[in-house]
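Case study B.
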Amino acid sequence: DSGVTQTPKHLITATGQRVTLRCSPRSGDLSVYWYQQSLDQGLQFLIQYYNGEERAKGNILERFSAQQFPDLHSELNLSSLELGDSALYFCASSVEFGAAPQETQYFGPGTRLLVL
Amino acid sequence: GEDVEQSLFLSVREGDSSVINCTYTDSSSTYLYWYKQEPGAGLQLLTYIFSNMDMKQDQRLTVLLNKKDKHLSLRIADTQTGDSAIYFCAEIVISSGGSYIPTFGRGTSLIVHP
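Model:
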């Protein structure tokens, strides 16, 4: 158990809909990262927040957005969903903004999203 | 852009050594990581190597880095059935904001036969 929690575990929805995925980082971790893992794209970094502020951006679509709240939990919002958005979405957390390697990222178990 | 490549599958017999290979493209990578993903779980950092090192040993794990060829390998000695998982290679580059952001390979599925 990494100490990172993600809800829900599974989500089934229809095209065009909007969903929110939630992540609670490990106690004391200030930084949250979101990743998408799909069969065709592999594991891709989406976005990072540190202490409430966006810190780094990866291959995140404009239909997707994220935020980190004062209690440090984070939400990833996916809108106008398409079939291709079906994937496993991971959240990870680290103490600082990723001064590797001692401040490694701890991954949550993921949310599996299926868009029908 | 960065691209990290790995073979997709590796099958070994229990007790043998496993060698998982990876090539990367970004010469500015500071660290290279190996992660393990067990079924239904997130990624777990196994080990890492700093880009100015050639080799790192950590119990049953040996990481070799050939910076000239941008080739990274992970050797698991005395492979056990519990080592069956997907292994991801990742190169780390520093973002404009100072964050260390990994670029992952597709992952190598290691299957260990009894």
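The interface with chain A takes residues 30-31, 33, 40-45, 48, 50, 88, 92, 95-107 of chain B (CB under 8 Å). The remaining cases will be described in the next quarterly update.
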